Amino acid sequence: MSLDAEVLIIGAGPAGLTAALALARLSHTVKILDNNEYRNKMFPNMTMLVGHDGQSPANFRKECRDNLLSRHPNVSIEETTVIRVSQTEKGQFAAEDALGKKWVGKKLVLATGCEDIFPAIEGYESFWGKGIYHCYFYKGYTTEKAKSSGILAVDVMQDVPKSMHAARYATQISNQVTIYTNGDTELAKSFGSAFGTSDLFRTDDRKIARFVKVDADASSPHTDTTVGIEFEDGTTVAESFIGHYPLSKNKGPFAEQLGLPLLPSGDIATNQPWLQTDIRGVFCCGDNSQPRKIIPEAQNSGSLVGAAVSNQIIADNFEQQGLV
Ligand SMILES: Cc1cc2nc3c(=O)[nH]c(=O)nc-3n(C[C@H](O)[C@H](O)[C@H](O)COP(=O)(O)OP(=O)(O)OC[C@H]3O[C@@H](n4cnc5c(N)ncnc54)[C@H](O)[C@@H]3O)c2cc1C
């Protein structure tokens, strides 16, 4: 099989595009394969990226793509869904899409992002990113503090230190924080000592039936994000927003196909410092493998992987032992 590019990258989010940019800066050829299903695809604005705070993630991705492709003819992007990856007899890597089209590269970068796995509570998904937030650096802030907010202590957050971590952040943007344990009475009791002497925090251990839209104070900046929590006892409370970090898993069947180990978090395991997997020549960057799932981290790990892959290719070309 002839080589389509030195490096195949699956995923054109901030991780894959940054890896491609680093590789392009040292004249490597790169083929990016991507199907446009970015994790934050449906959200109108992003934060925490200096110089782009509050801007549209779609515009940001377009600017990154246009800039990369217009300056680096060695990089190209194919819009497609890859369904299979494998290592060839020569030790190269092949990627195949649903139509049977194949690409071969010397090295493979998985920049596929992750899928969020929501708790089985009715209505959760409809508030995801619009009232239920996984990160208060991303959303929740307005110029006026909210009257009260909630923390949903289920799944990853069914844990005192993790829920308290989020609850403490919440006190910067709301005057009262209630931790909802969804029927876990023992967990609710164990928050007592973590609260210390502060009266800003409290718990509610009632079982949640569903999240519902409620009428909120129209003059509040939190009207659109207010979440109604309807309990199995038939009562409902309203919170200006709720903090919850869902479970997640790396996207696509590639870790399984290549036999790559996963971490308990669902991320693909990589080795420090170069983020190479247990297979030489396969690297991961961004949300599929990094614990901090934010755009700056996707870019950071993408640039590291780009540099590592370049180093390995050059060392291979000279039949030398490189650092990677
Ligand atoms: C609600 C929400 C809001 C967020 N807001 C912010 C924010 O304001 N600021 C911030 O810093 N971070 C934010 N994030 C996190 C941010 O979206 C991610 O950290 C970032 O997108 C990760 O980049 P990535 O390149 O790893 O993955 P992604 O951006 O998800 O890109 C991965 C790409 O790979 C593609 N892909 C996967 N499998 C295949 C396949 N088989 N074939 C072809 N292509 C494939 C995907 O479809 C996708 O196009 C937010 C996340 C969520 C859920």
Automatic annotation (TrEMBL):
The keyword rRNA-binding does not apply. It holds the Pfam family Pyr_redox_2. The keyword Glycoprotein does not apply. Belongs to the class-II pyridine nucleotide-disulfide oxidoreductase family. GO terms for biological process: cellular response to toxic substance. This is FAD/NAD(P)-binding domain-containing protein. The lineage of its organism: Eukaryota, Fungi, Dikarya, Ascomycota, Pezizomycotina. Keywords: Flavoprotein, Oxidoreductase. GO terms for molecular function: oxidoreductase activity. Residues 6-299 form the FAD/NAD(P)-binding domain. It comes from Periconia macrospinosa.
